[in-house]
Amino acid sequence: MTQPKPALNKRVILVTRPVGIAQASDFAIEETALPPLEDGEVCVANQFLSVDPAMRGWIADSGNYSDPVPIGGVMRSLSVGKIVESRSPDWHAGQIVLGWFGWQQFAAVKPEAIVRAVTQTDLPASLALGVLGINGVTALLALTLVGEPKPGNTLVVSTAAGSVGSAVGQIGRFLGCRTVGIAGGANKVQQCLEEFGYDAAIDYKAGTLDVAIAEACPDGVDIYFDNTSGPVSDAVLPHLALRARVVNCGTAAIDRWSPWPTGPRVERHLLVKRARMQGFVVFDHMEKWEESVEKLAQWVREGKLRYSEEVLDGLDACPDALAGLYRGENTGKRVIRI
Description:
By secondary structure, this protein is of the alpha/beta class. The protein is 23% helix and 26% strand. It has 9 helices and 15 strands. It has helices spanning 55-58, 134-147, 165-174, 186-194, 209-216, 230-236, 267-272, 289-301, 321-326; strands spanning 8-14, 27-33, 42-50, 79-86, 96-99, 106-109, 114-117, 154-158, 178-183, 200-203, 221-226, 240-248, 276-279, 309-313, 333-337. The strands form 3 sheets. Strands 3, 4, 5, 6, 7, 14 and 15 form a 7-stranded mixed sheet that branches. Strand 9, helix 4 (186-194) and strand 10 form a beta-alpha-beta unit. Helix 2 (134-147) packs across helix 3 and helix 2 (134-147) packs across helix 8 (289-301).
């Protein structure tokens, strides 16, 4: 039985095109009427909204691998919610679903916006946005498909305490790698060692990063899982081992791409070490999403795969949530509870 759909909706819209990291002033919260559902559509009451570093690219002027969010449009995000009304034969009221529902209370969408039904009901629904969602799936697939880990390999991970990096380090250990995390600040280094089980961890803010990498990786770096680009990566690349693999998963250290930044050249490192550097975007591998979630969920149930989650409350937390992520305020996967 369908439930009555609410008449009003609060949503977060993009009001200015940011230069660099989006600030709270680039967004506004508005209340608007929800239109009647069309044939085939569903109405989802959002429960949790995701906050991800990749969102910066989704609102950039030039875009990256997706069209930018239009001015006046609802901020794009993955969300978890409950279907409250359905005019689709494939979906029914009461189902918990993950999809592209945006930063808003309610979303009237076509079924194509739904990524999957959330069936791991024994685990918190919010995990579908993190360790059982885009972050965990990215960690598992990018590491295994591009990094090609082998027992005994040295795996170095930047933003090692983050929602992707923390999963990469743990999965690497499951697959027999020696893991070295790079994070910012003593607290996050401690989290890498004590919570996520890294074999070694480096504070990039402490200086002498080159020396610290050399000490932690005396035989070189077989796999570098790069979430940052920028100075951290510049310090890691000279330590690549023969036939190393570099997984380019994020560029969090670069605050803008116009004008295009310049830096040390990577070609000589790749040539001399016969190394490979490859970019990874999880949306190229959607056919592997469900099986990846099942594997990750089993590790969570067994207590093998640990995660950290930071929950902010209410739509009012949305406008500054992305900027706060880049300020390094979060202590785990950042989600917003509605």
